[in-house]
Amino acid sequence: MVNMLDPTPSNYQEMLAFVQSHPLYLLIVFGSALLVASAAYVVYQCYFSPLASFPGPFAAKVTSLWRPYMTSRGQWHRYLDELHRRHGSVVRIGPNQLSIGDPDAFRTIYRISGAFVKSSSYAVLQGSRPFDLAGERSEKIHAAQRRLVARPYSMESVVHLEPQVDRLLDDLLVKFDAFALSPNPIDLGNWFQLFAFDVIGAVSFSKPFGFVARGTDEGIFGRIERAFSSTSWLMHAPLVYKFHQKFILPYIGNFLAANDRNGYFFEFAKSEVQDRRDKGGNDKDIVGQLFQTARNKPELTDLSISFMMTSNVFAGSDTTAIGLRSIFLNLLQHPRVLAKLRAELEERKAAGQLSNPVTFHEAEACPYLQAVIYEALRVFSPVGTIPDRDVPKEGMTICGRFIPGGTVVGTSPWVIHHSPEIWGPDYEEFKPERWLGEDSSHLKRFFFTFGGGTRTCIGKNISWLEMDKLVSTLLMRYNFELVDEANITDVCSTLVFLKGLKVKITMRDA
After folding, report:
1. What Gene Ontology molecular-function terms does this entry list (predicted)?
2. What is d(CA 204, CA 183) in angstroms, rounded to the nearest whole number?
């Protein structure tokens, strides 16, 4: 019998001959080695890893595949919230990943200094785009890019575009007036998105896409949702993405909807920017202002502007539409709040302080309206995923426990917005009054719908202007009745898509 443990060269040929004649033996040896290595890895992750003391599902501790799998199921936002109810402020959601619900740690991670940089998962979102505020990991590059494009997104600039929003709102009111004459319900959420997408076209290119007028999105919304869904799990399965991009995409074609952001929607935005460049137009819209900036800042190329407009087109309507759905759903489920809001609006109308349609500044002066918007976006945040950040190399301490540098940490809006430590024991209740008390400025520090720190959503002002105007104007003009409430569902695909918001509309008494 050959001594397999004898490493002397004289035995090599005999060993090779033995292995060739006994392949099962080799399989057993390698299988045993793999089993021992796997067991050692599991033991290390569960008992000796620097994150071993943090609670979480067993599968999350030992494999990076757990998170993309759970994300792909569509209820990641609610499941994360449930995990924190079960395990506390810090939950392990990967071998090197922690979900954070601690208020102080949340403030540290997303503070304005930007010490916690975006994790490598954002490479999937960015793809090959050199100009990308959402996907860019470098704080220095991001800051430089944001300075180039920030002016058109300021509230001062956005308000100058309000007349374009008013024209689209008039178009929507014509549609709703017709619906009010019919006993048939409508999908209110779909109309909100048609409106929000048209607004993006109007403020970006002075060119509404005509979705409200035609009453259809021509398949665009489904394409956006599929891209978000694909991106949500691919960001945590980077090897799948890299393999596809290197070996499948160049030879067979695209099989990942996530690529639509940097493919289909980029080409769409690029075409609109080029058309605008060729034909000229309104210097006050976003593209017009960026063209003006580019005259003095040649580093802002038409290609960079096209990348920026891709983000407008791809993600500019969904957060607003989801927010509007949440606002109306919660108002219709809470008649007391709806009556109180209408009373505020009626009082201001009687005092000559509300126009038709309501202006942004008039809506901003309605404190209860503002409280309703904040609260609706708190209880049902449009964003359901975790904006991952890397712990700096010096590490950090959370709840008395040290977390080493390089650990991926982050907080979901659904976790921080439902924290009883911040919002009190009634955190699940839709209660706009919480935003009117002395603590309101403190609470706004934990309002995370539009992100935080240096990465706050650049389109926040556009979204808020739309919500201000639409909510106040529609509530003054129509009554809404929920239909098939039991069929309302939500699906988390990075954003939390609220589906099935059907209502009957009737005109209110003048």
Report:
1. heme binding; iron ion binding; monooxygenase activity; oxidoreductase activity, acting on paired donors, with incorporation or reduction of molecular oxygen
2. 36
Q: Which amino acid is at 51?
A: L
Strand, coil or helix: what is 503?
A: strand
457 annotated as a binding-site residue: yes
Quick one: angle between helices 335-350 and 460-477, nearest 10? 90
The dihedral region occupied by 395, where left means phi > 0, alpha psi between -120 and 50, and beta the remainder, is: left
299: containing domain: 122-507
Calculate the alpha carbon distances from 193 to 27, 39, 167, 477, 491 in Å: 58, 50, 16, 20, 16
What's the pLDDT score for residue 487? 96
Note whether residue 52 is domain-resident.
Answer: no
Amino acid letter, 437? G
Tokens of 99: 């979900």
Residue 58 lies in a domain: no
Write the pLDDT tens digit of every residue in 419-438. Answer: 999 999 999 999 999 999 88
194 falls within a domain: yes
Whether 450 and 458 have beta carbons less than 8 Å apart is answered as: no
Supply the CATH number for residue 237's domain.
Answer: 1.10.630.10
Domain presence at residue 91: no
pLDDT in tens, 307-325: 999 999 999 899 999 999 9
DSSP letter for each residue of 213-245: HHT--TTHHHHHHHHHHHHHHHTT-HHHHHHII
**pLDDT value at residue 13:** 72
pLDDT grade, residue 148 (50/70/90)?
A: very high
pLDDT at site 16: 66
DSSP β-bridge partners for residue 403: 396
Q: What is the pLDDT of residues 14-52, one digit of tens each?
A: 766 766 676 776 678 778 888 899 899 899 999 999 999
